[in-house]
Design brief:
Chain A: Pfam families: ABC_tran (PF00005). Chain A: This is ABC transporter ATP-binding protein. Chain A: GO terms for molecular function: ATP binding; ATP hydrolysis activity; transmembrane transporter activity. Chain A: It comes from Nonomuraea montanisoli. The complex is a heterodimer. Helix content of chain A is 29%, strand content 28%. Chain A folds into two domains: 197 residues, P-loop containing nucleotide triphosphate hydrolases (Rossmann fold); 29 residues, no CATH class. Chain A is built from nine helices and 13 strands. In chain B, a hairpin with a 5-residue loop joins strand 14 and strand 15. The chains are: A alpha/beta, B alpha+beta. The interface between A and B is large, with 37 and 34 residues.
């Protein structure tokens, strides 16, 4: 039976759960276009992303896929051109300068790839870790030491960055990022400049922060070592989320990774490029709805006199 | 063409570099010329002001007997030609030809007593080759040929002669009278005419002063006056004028052209005079006599050289500072340009470019900007009037060499090891031992130099001493090095304080200033000397100013002074009092007094000292008060200790010493003098008025109405001192230098900010995500730069104020200040303080504005990528 007009009206007026609901990070159809000297570069082309509070997520993608743009948007340093971006309930598109400052001081912490750029060279490890608290106008001595202790670099508190190893510098950088008790940590290739053993240490530190402090951690990375150890890996391609890999423990304790393609709200789906190449899929495909799946076939060879 | 590309891309720094090079070349090329021109003017003024007797070269011979006497002006002229032929090339252009200026020939007797005058009257006879154009006959006729007469049974020559009006009056030589001369070999002089000098003030008459007026002397121990005069005789009389009979001197005066010598050639002139003296002495004048060369030109030139050397010392010192600062700022600008090419050069080096190629690539764009600018500056400096000194050429060359040398050298040093890990931001590493040793060496050398400088003066007899001239600059550099090394230490105390507080900005800014490697060494090396030298220049300038004022007061002794050779009646005093602007008139009497009953004399002024002190109230000179009772007197140091003495003025009086004064402003500075109350004479005969107030001196002169009265004013005297060629130029040079240094300092601050911009943006890009607000960012930049600038400003200020004291007796500016020694160099702190404060404020404001302007660029996503090398 077709619904009556009044039923439709009631349906439209009824409060509907927003996209993402109460997720910690919500990106809906996010678009970011850079204009440089008349050339437009579309870095994000309608990206959707949902991350829950306390998650440890890796974002992977080829160079130029839009990872860093996403991170800049999430850190409040960049404003998207269109779409929705919300972190911990704060709308990143409509923030004033003051909100933005508060956001940086209270909600988000940041870790760069280059170990040297995470810390001020003329401050000691502890002073570096106290800095965000001081910038916010508070005192943070005890907190800084606690964090350094938690991350295993308490004995290096009085040293300057130049006297620390790369791994130690990155762990201090994590302490700096955590200093203001943020709810989200964004890390841009935090292990990019480190060898595998040190990478492991730094990643462990991040995981510790995630588990013990309950902080949401988003890591942009190329490092398979990192990507394979998080619960969820989000792949970005051409400015869109293209795939997700979920990991869970199997019945026998082994880690089972399942890779999914991402289906957006209007039903768009990105097929992995190698799948398309293998079957020579181009321009259009044939879909067939089965009882429990949708089949995708290459387009049939059309007779030459199609028209 | 490839070097054009970076030049076009970095137009700002290229233009800055061009402007700096042009201005520096113009200044270091033009100022020495202007100085040298003023030295020349001063030399010419000194020569014109000096009597001809001091400047001219006198070749003299005393003919020993009749056979050797010259009888004819033609013989004199022939000898003159021979003497001129001997002139060394250096002297030839300076000497005027015979008949021009003071050049002439003469035959004059000396110490010729008038018979029967008991040695109290002397009348010499003389022939001057240019007498006809020097005197005009006012009575009688010009003398003619000599005759003979019989005196004491001997035939003696009778010279027809003319005397000056003064001689006629003082020695009673009427036209038609005859005087017998000599005590054994007699001659007669018949006065046939009386003449007056065409121009009595001509410096020529210093050569023959008693031709125009009688010279009166007091021989020691005698109360009688001795009178000397010379009477002019005709050329025909030369036939009867012999060296046998009387003291006769032939003189060939080679007149110096006062406008011809240059201050640069004075040393050559001195040497040439010595040569000439040797040549003249061996040239036989007559059969038995030899020439003697008499001149006081070397002394005069020596005195001038000494005055000029002290003047040059100060100006060269200041110019040296200017050159150093200009070179420093240019280096800074070159660095600004070359740092932009660093990445490209590093890549080129990594791809295998030779160091030579790097040097060429570095120097190319700099040369494009600097060479034409330097040439233009050098060319413009030729528009400044004045002779070129070596510095005129060397200065611009040095500026250019510094610019190109640094531009070529910097990439070579920086990229010697390709792709080496260079970390500019890393916290202060320990300075290498070699550098500490070098710095210690500079400091030790500067201190040793300063010690030497204090123990001997800057401008000694040997002239310029390059090592000692470098000392002030070395002192400044040493101070800069010490500042750079030491300023973090006190800052660390502040950091400790700041770390206790919760405010992040002071903590961060001070910590960075205290701990980070002093990236801004070069600006300190520029700012400190710039400030020190400009403070030094302004202190010297104000010192000269004060001394000039003092000299003017010392010369006049009151705002307006009226002196008269005759008594000024009471009515005159009343009339002067009524002149608008006159506040106070103090009458005084000056004269010579006899001390005791001996021939000892002293200059005296009788005046109401209390009133005179009121006249001098606002002036830099003064006199001690006199007690009211009795007849007290202020005496000169030479008369000190005599207690009560008797003086003979109008009447004999006893005065009591009440104090010692080294000088009486406006009247006496040396010898024996005393100041007594006006009542020392029962009826004072007022011949001097001391006037207070800003009345017009011309109005005062009209009110006095006495043609023999002279009105002088302190303002006119001050203007005369200030307008002296040397003084005016030195003040201008000091002024221009101060302004130029201040401008360079400002440019240095701005360039320093621009050079540091990338570093600062990187730091801010890191701090902003941590929660740094815009206000905090501006405060942070200001705080980072301010400690160094403040410390530099303070040290520069201190050094500039201390330099005059440190150089102490090395600098004598009395030649700029009317002969008064310039002392107490720090009377006016306003300008130095203004300079230092201006610098600090400019730096602080610059940092603030710079951060505020960079706000839009630094806050976006680009911030995260700033400095990304990958």
């Amino acid at each position: 039976m077709n619904p009556t007009l009044s039923e439709l009206e009631a349906q439209a007026g009824a409060p509907r759960a927003a996209f993402g609901g109460d997720a910690h990070i919500v990106c809906d159809n996010l678009v970011r276009i850079y204009k440089t000297e008349g050339v437009e570069v579309v870095a994000l082309q309608g990206l959707d992303l949902l991350i829950d509070e306390g998650e440890l997520v890796a974002v992977v993608g080829a160079s130029g896929s839009g990872k860093s743009t996403l991170l800049n948007v999430l850190s409040g340093l960049d404003v998207p051109t269109a779409g929705v971006a919300r972190v911990a309930g704060m709308d990143l598109l409509s923030m004033t300068a003051k909100d933005r400052l508060r956001y940086r001081r209270e909600v988000v912490g940041f870790i760069w790839q280059q170990t040297t750029r995470n810390l001020l060279p003329y401050l000691t490890a502890r002073e570096n870790a106290e800095l965000p608290v001081r910038l916010a106008g508070r005192r943070g001595k005890g907190r800084a030491m606690e964090l350094l202790d938690l991350l295993g670099v308490a004995d290096r508190a009085g040293r300057r960055p130049g006297e620390l190893s790369g791994g130690e510098q990155q762990r201090v950088a994590i302490a700096v990022a955590l200093a203001n008790s943020p709810r989200l940590i964004l890390a841009d290739e935090p292990t990019g400049e480190l060898d595998s053993d040190t990478s492991e240490e730094v990643f462990d530190a991040l995981r510790k922060a995630n588990r013990e402090l309950g902080v949401t951690v988003v890591i942009v990375t190329h490092d398979p070592l990192v990507a394979e150890q998080v619960d969820r890996t989000i792949g970005i391609r051409d400015g869109r989320t293209s795939s997700e890999t979920l990991r869970r423990e199997g019945a026998e304790g082994q880690v089972v990774a399942e890779e999914y393609a991402v289906l957006d709200r209007v039903g768009r789906l990105q097929l992995p490029r190698d799948f398309m190449n293998a079957l020579n899929m181009e321009r259009r495909v044939r879909l067939e709805l089965e009882s429990d799946h949708i089949g995708v076939w290459p387009a049939r060879e059309e007779p030459s006199g199609e028209q | 063409m490839r070097s054009l590309v970076p030049a076009r891309v970095h137009l700002g720094p290229v233009v800055l570099l061009a402007v700096l090079t042009l201005s520096a070349c113009l200044l270091v090329g033009g100022l020495p010329r202007a100085l040298q021109a003023s030295f020349d003017d001063a030399l010419h003024a000194a020569l014109r002001g000096a009597p001809a007797l001091q400047t001219d070269l006198l070749a003299q011979v005393e003919p020993p007997g009749a056979p050797n006497s010259l009888r004819d002006p033609a013989q004199f002229a022939a000898a003159d030609a021979r003497l001129r032929a001997l002139l060394p090339p250096a002297l030839r252009p300076l000497v005027l030809p015979a008949g021009q200026g003071t050049s002439h020939m003469s035959a004059v007797t000396y110490d010729t007593p008038v018979h029967g005058s008991s040695g109290r009257s002397y009348l010499n006879v003389g022939w001057l080759s240019d007498a006809d154009r020097r005197v005009r006959w006012t009575e009688g006729r010009p003398p003619g040929a000599p005759g003979s007469m019989t005196y004491e049974r001997e035939s003696i020559p009778v010279f027809e002669a003319g005397v000056s009006e003064d001689t006629r009056d003082k020695m009673g030589l009427k036209v038609g009278s005859t005087q017998i001369l000599g005590e054994s070999d007699y001659a007669a002089v018949k006065i046939v005419g009386v003449y007056a000098a065409v121009d009595p003030a001509d410096r020529y008459w210093s050569l023959h002063s008693d031709v125009v007026r009688v010279t009166e002397t007091h021989p020691p121990g005698s109360l009688e006056v001795e009178r000397h005069a010379t009477a002019l005789i005709s050329a025909a009389s030369l036939t009867r004028l012999d060296g046998d009979d009387r003291n006769l001197v032939y003189t060939w005066t080679l007149g110096l052209d006062p406008g011809a010598p240059t201050s640069l050639g004075t040393a050559d002139v001195e040497a040439a005079i010595t040569d000439y003296e040797r040549a003249v002495t061996v040239e036989p004048a007559t059969a038995a006599g030899r020439y003697q060369l008499n001149t006081r030109l070397p002394e005069l030139l020596g005195r001038f050289l000494a005055a000029q050397n002290t003047a040059r010392t100060v100006t060269i010192l200041v110019l040296g500072g200017l050159l150093a600062v200009a070179a420093g700022v240019i280096v800074l600008a070159v660095r600004l340009l070359s740092e932009r090419a660093d990445t490209a050069l590093a890549l080129a080096r990594a791809r295998g470019a030779s160091l030579g190629r790097l040097a060429a690539a570095g120097a190319g764009p700099v040369a494009l900007a600097a060479v034409p600018a330097a040439l233009a500056g050098y060319a413009l400096s030729w528009l400044v009037p004045g002779p070129p000194t070596p510095l005129v050429h060397a200065g611009p060359a040095l500026v250019l060499a510094v610019a190109l040398g640094y531009a070529a050298g910097r990439p070579v040093v920086a990229h010697r090891a390709p792709l080496s890990e260079r970390r500019d931001d890393v916290a202060a590493a320990r300075p290498p031992l070699r550098r500490i040793t070098m710095e210690a060496l500079v400091v030790v050398l500067a201190l040793a130099g300063a010690y030497l400088l204090r123990s001997r003066s800057l401008a000694g007899e040997a002239g310029d001493d390059p090592f000692l001239l470098v000392v002030p600059v070395a002192l400044t550099v040493a101070a800069a090095l010490i500042t750079i090394r030491c300023y973090p230490y006190p800052l660390r105390l502040l950091v400790r304080l700041a770390s206790r507080g919760k405010a992040a900005v002071p903590f961060l800014g001070l910590t960075r200033a205290a701990r980070a490697r002093p990236a801004s060494v070069l600006p300190v090396l520029i700012l400190l000397p710039a400030l020190a030298v400009s403070v030094f220049a302004s202190v010297i300038s104000s010192g000269v100013d004060t001394a000039q004022r003092q000299a003017a007061w010392q010369a006049v002794g009151a705002p307006i002074k009226v002196t008269s050779r005759v008594e000024l009646p009471a009515g005159v005093v009343e009339r002067v009092r009524a002149v608008p602007g006159v506040e106070l008139v103090v009458p005084a009497q000056t004269g010579q007094v006899q001390l005791g009953y001996t021939g000892e004399r002293a200059e005296a002024i009788a005046v109401d000292v209390a009133a005179w002190r009121r006249v001098l109230e606002d002036s830099p000179v003064g006199l001690p008060a006199l007690p009211a009772s009795g007849l007290p007197a202020l005496v000169s140091p030479e008369l000190h200790g005599r207690g009560t003495m008797e003086i003979g003025w109008h009447a004999r009086t006893k005065i009591t010493e009440a104090g010692v004064v080294t000088a009486v402003p406006g009247f006496f500075t040396r010898g024996k003098f005393l100041v007594t109350p006006l009542r020392v004479n029962a009826r004072p005969s007022v011949n001097t008025l001391l006037v207070k107030g800003d009345a017009d001196p011309a109005a005062v002169a009209r009110a006095v109405g006495q043609p023999l009265a002279v009105v002088t004013s302190q303002a006119a005297e001050l203007a005369a001192i200030r307008d002296a060629p040397l003084t005016g130029t030195v003040r201008t040079v000091l002024g221009i230098t101060t302004v130029a240094l201040a401008a360079y300092a400002l440019v240095a601050v701005v360039v320093m900010l621009v050079i540091g911009a990338a570093d600062r943006t990187r730091a801010l890009a890191f701090l902003r995500p941590l929660g740094l607000s815009e206000r905090q960012a501006r405060g942070l930049t200001t705080l980072e730069i301010l400690p160094l600038v403040l410390v530099t400003a303070l040290v520069g200020l201190g050094l500039g104020l201390a330099l005059p004291a440190a150089l102490g007796p090395g600098i004598d500016l009395s030649s700029y200040a009317g002969g008064v020694a310039v002392q107490g160099y720090a009377p006016d702190l306003a300008v130095p303080l203004l300079l230092a404060a201006g610098l600090a404020v400019a730096a602080g404001l610059g940092a603030y504005v710079h951060t505020a302007a960079g706000r839009g660029r630094g806050s976006g996503a680009t911030a995260l990528r700033t400095g990304d090398l990958t």
